[in-house]
Design goal:
Blueprint (H helix, E strand, L loop, with lengths): L6 E5 L2 E4 L1 H39 L2 E18 L5 E15 L2 E6 L11 H9 L7 E6 L7 E2 L6 H27 L5 H7 L15 E2 L2 E5 L14 E2 L5 H32 L5 H31 L2 E5 L9 E8 L3 E20 L2 E22 L5 E8 L8 E2 L3 E13 L5 E7 L13 H7 L1
Antiparallel strand pairs: 1-2, 3-4, 3-6, 4-5, 6-7, 8-9, 10-11, 11-12, 12-15, 13-14, 13-17, 16-17, 17-18
Helix pairs in contact: 1-3, 3-5, 5-6
Length: 448
Amino acid sequence: MRLPRFFEKKRGERRTGSQVWASVGEAAFYATLLLAGLVFGGLLVSGVAVPEWRINHDFLPARGVVLGKGLQRRSVADPPGVVHTTWAPIVRLRFPVEGAMRDVWSQPLTTAVTPDRETAIARLQSLPSIGAETPCWYDPDAPEIVVLKRGYNWSMWLLTLLLPGALVAFGGSGLLRAVRAWGKSEEHRAVAAGLPEKLAPMGQSPAEAPGFPGVPACDNLVNSPGTILSYRLPIESPESWALLGFGLFALVWNAVLVVLAVGAGLDLMGGRIDWLLFGLIVPFAMVGIGAVVLFIRGLVVATSVGPTQVEVSDHPLHPGRAYEVLVAQGGSGMLRTLELSFEVEEQATFRQGTDTRTERVVVWSQPIKQWRDVELSPASRFEAETMVRLPDRAMHSFHSEHNVVSWRFVVRGEPDRWPPFCRVFPVVVFPAASASPALPSVIRKAAR
């Protein structure tokens, strides 16, 4: 049997990696995560969940007499040679089992184990005194195992569910995707995903404007009426996506941090210090705190500056015609500058070797209006109208699989106490051939 080659096609000095070996590596990575989650979960279930479940459901109740009290000492030697000693208070009980009396030492409570002997002695004093009668529960299959208290260690159950569950879910879903995509091209995967239109050599996309192939439709841009002008434009703020990304990252990262902290706390309660785990917690905590700070900072900036709205007198736009534009800014405080500009952005998607890259470039920008020392009040928003005229030979909006030409209004502000912000409002420009020589009535009024 011949193994697949590591390299396939050669392009100049570069070689294309084997898709088969890439799939093997991806599947192996996710399989390792899945296996680690199953093994770790199995250890936690067998070591924590099953014993606690049996104590609370299978152990039989009894009444025992305390014959003695003492401390159980356990010593654990770590690989570097450091010995950790733990202490746990226990009592000796006499209780009946099927008509016979048994004398056994109780099992120590997990929450009572401590590396401090004085603390263990103090906890020992809280247990029933010698000669007192106390309830207890014993294992019917092994009566020498008896406990003084039942209940669940919910922190360990949380650790049992979260960390192995996350590994199993992430590894299992990734392995399933890798297996389903094994040996299939991008075209096959597109068909499997229900996207056969990607394979069509020609055809008009539903997103195109009728009669203008390649020109995006503006149905989603004219379905919101303005308060003063005809249409209110939707916002595509990069700050909103950054804020959402920071929020999701902070949530996931700090969830992992909580799991690690719970594990470290349980080790510390058991008298054992895992220095590797503590070494991971410190940088994890720094990154988690930083993510929360960035998210809160972005949220405060977004709520303090307030919403921005842009309205336009007509839509779609046409080259050589003039339009009224309204800028409305809410919030409170002072803006040193508030600027409205008109931009054209080109986007190109291309393949470089086996990678797909997308680059965006602003190829044309025209400042329209700038306002200085804008005082914002929560009671009333700042509003200003201005005029914008498109160049006579302006390129129309265009959208294809690999190239995009998009027009947009951009509002940039510089608050007095916060970082600058930038908010984008896309518009659609139709080809010049569709423009009517008659101007809208609102434009004729403005021209007078």
